[in-house]
User: Fold this.
Amino acid sequence: MLTKFETKSARVKGLSFHPKRPWILASLHNGVIQLWDYRMCTLIDKFDEHDGPVRGIDFHKQQPLFVSGGDDYKIKVWNYKLRRCLFTLLGHLDYIRTTFFHHDYPWILSASDDQTIRIWNWQSRTCVCVLTGHNHYVMCAQFHPSEDLVVSASLDQTVRVWDISGLRKKNLSPGAVENDVRGISGVDLFGASDAVVKHGHDRGVNWAAFHPTMPLIVSGADDRQVKIWRMNESKAWELDTCRGHYNNVSCAVFHPRQELILSNSEDKSIRVWDMSKRTGVQTFRRDHDRFWLERERPAYAVYGNMLYYVKDRFLRQLDFNSSKDTAVMQLRSTYDLYSIPKESDSQNPDAPEGKRSSGLTAVWVARNRFAVLDRMHSLLIKNLKNEIVKKVQVPSCEEIFYAGTGSLLLRDADGITLFDVQQKRSLATVKIAKVKYVVWSADTSHVALLAKHAIMICNRRLESLCSIHENIRVKSGAWDESGVDHGIIRTLDLPIYVTRVRGNSVYCLDRECRPRVLTIDPTEYRFKLALVLHMVRTAKLVGQSIIAYLQKKGYPEVALHFVALEAAKALDDRGCWERLGEAALLQGHHQVVEMCYQRTKNFDKLTFLYLITGNLAKLRKMMKIAEIRKDMSGHYQGALYLGDVSERVRILKNCGQKSLAYLTAATHGMDEEAEALKETFDLEKETLLQPPPPINPLDTNWPLLTVSKGFFEGAIAAKGKAGQMAADLDMEAPGGEGWGQDAELQLDEDGFMDAQDGLGDDGGLVKEEGGGWEVEEDLDLPPELDMPSGVGGGAGEGFFVPPTKGTSPTQMWCNNSQLPVDHVLAGSFETATRLLHDQVGVVNFGPYKALFMQTLSRGRTCYLGLPSLPCLRGHPQRNWKDCGAKQGLPAVGLRLSDLIARLQQCYQLTTSGRFEEAVERFRAILLSVPLLVVDNKQEIAEAQQLITICREYIVGLTMESERKKLPKDTLDQQKRLCEMAAYFTHCNLQPVHMVLVLRTALNLFFKLRNFKTAASFARRLLELGPKPEVAQQTRKILAACEKTLTDAHQLNYDPHNPFDLCAASFVPLYRGRPVEKCPLSGACYCPPYKGQVCRVTQATEIGKDVIGLRVSPLQFR
Assistant:
């Protein structure tokens, strides 16, 4: 049995799978109902209203509902979208064991320890009938999947089948329940002739279930037996008994597609029974080997243009070219060796004789040899006759995979090993845990290793090229011909298993083993690859986004070439040149750095660049430029760099620093100059201080960490003149002038030069190869002097191995949390927006831009390490005391108390009548709530309450602002004004504001002569305790209204019928009418507004199906 999902909790009493989504409901002994996503292994929600254990649980087949029944005698119907209980059904007098929805009608079936079975109409919320007849606890009751039948099991040792066709014929609608069914008891409607009672078990029966298509019933009981019953229209009889459990059988069900029965027992085992043989197929216990009842992943293999896969015990063949799908032959066992017939009848394929073998895995290693990993984890090589040719001793091995002729990939606990079967030795090893599948490229030059949550791409020598981590399980993979890039190409509703990618088609198998072809759009990643190769060959730049793409993909030097030659020159912007200079400095391209400093006239940096590269000639010219510009500091600095003492003395003397000039002249032995300056000084001579001259001027690019050539470097060198600057990447010619005559600085009238003139048309980096060097390479040397190829004589020697890059704190923040604010603080805006989209339905992220940037700025600290060095960055963590090395979470600067304090400012703006400003402040608070992190349930409730307050004020104030803009010339317009004022009184506001709202509505209705409604507003106003003068005026108006308690005009306003207010059209949505809601604010809308952006948040999608607000780690447990 393959365990797909496992979690620990209080005792589980009931389970229910969602009919479409990968969700499962678990009802627990402590009264909590948990909703899990078993594919993502995450807790979606918890529902906690039952008092005591919850035993019955069931999803509705179409509606977003589920029903639960517990030991508190209550049946509750829940809406998981609204995340609340809709209503409670009362009537049972003891524990409720099971609850199930009907597949078509609005019925709920419940079984109880009060010895009755009840059917409820969940639309009218009434009990429509009671089935009585059992004389002990009713442990289970279920509807038939297609007929008007109910089966029940009881501790009175009986299984009963009930005919409910009489109930269906009543056509129970919400209005007909009271008239047609009231007073009809279960005994009257379902007498003895309508129930088939079968005695067969010796003890109480715990479960009974119908077969989905056949007239069969299965039951499990405390007598440790599983019984199969057959029935017809009038009777039922025992067909057979399955014996094997050695404790009470708790549950038994039919497999929906195969002739199997599953049962579980208090002996802590799950048993699988063959219906035809009535024997046990397999027993599953946690301490035994895994057993696939029905493996989700179909068995398949790709060979050439053919896909071979197994379906319904047939080996089938799918031609990718013609899409022809045919059955090849029948299979008898999963461990047989078959020879595929060249010609076969696809309608009635043969079942050829196979050579049976045993083992864990079988893999081909040659045309007529295959390897088998047996149960002792030793490797056997067999021929086509299924005979053992030889045994191979291998290292500790859990699984074997195909690796081409004569080779195998061996999986152990820590990684994958490339093993040569002929030489019986390991060739290479790569570290990756728990590899499940291996996918080779068409030419077997690359291999993809697929683990549970990771993908690693390696070459033929098993050298890791790249690795990708996924948050959800990796199911399958296939190589595209272009083979580049990674990202989301298409989203899927259900898992598939990819077999081949060709063009814009993905060939795959679903879990039903049906071949499918999905259409994708490969334009983006193919265009980027083609564009990169085109740029390498032609040295042409297309756009700034391609530069960012190249840098992201690990080719910054190529991006730098194109920036220098195309983008920066075309833009000719100072900021662009400065950014380019910084990037070039990181890559060691000092020629590009020089060009940037020249264009921006950054003389100080340019002078220092000439110093560290040892270019004394240009350094001297920079000193002359500083003198022309009358930059005394730069002039003196240049003389200091050059060691020109006389020039320094002259500079100091000209600027009036005679004392410093004397000290400099005397220190460096300039006696005549010192004597001339020795009018006021008499100092002893000091030791000579002079900077050392450069040993070797630098004329090549600075080396980076990795000195081995990359793909683009080799491609550029192969093309020769591929790029204007690319030729320098492989320049090793000694003896040349590092800068050349063309690099001489030519001064203009301002004392500076033009960078383009200084570097030539090609930037001074492309030089033609001359014929001056004639070196003979073919010399006859003694054979004993032969050296092995490679640097240092051995593979891997002579190369600098850079240290492994660790995981940054921000990356660990993203890995450790599913709260949006943690991803924002980490700078991962993409994942943060995805979480906000999934949790609260945000589709317009414009309002969140300022909040994101403000939050990100709180996630870093900067402090000075050493003078003249860049600041060091810190990453403050909120769990720094106990987080360890990899469990850190960012410190959140925004607190719930801060938002509550800002709420008081909004109240003040509302009181002063500044509605538009108040609405903006309320909206900012509301949008900030999903960016909170709180620690307990009370704060979670307070955050949700804060959203409710903001919603009520935003809707009310927006409606009031719109009301003031409306004309009031005609009667209909005046009526509309009164309606909107009346709706405003139903917004949940603070008393001080509600007094103002009620006064406005009271005055408008009194003027319209709707005295009855005006009187109700007056009474509500007086209940709030207004100021004495307001109360006195209100009492006068109330007295005038009570004289004529009538309304002169009919309005669309019923104060006695509860309603929600549409936040877009400002019309009431009375109870029972369809309503769409904003997933974040909870604002209500008419159905036509579904899919639009919420008017309250201006960021979320109305009616979107979401997970729900998540502001605490407690909500994921």
Q: What stands out?
A: The CA atoms of residues 388 and 410 lie 20 Å apart. The mean pLDDT is 80. The radius of gyration is 41 Å. The longest strand covers residues 236-243.
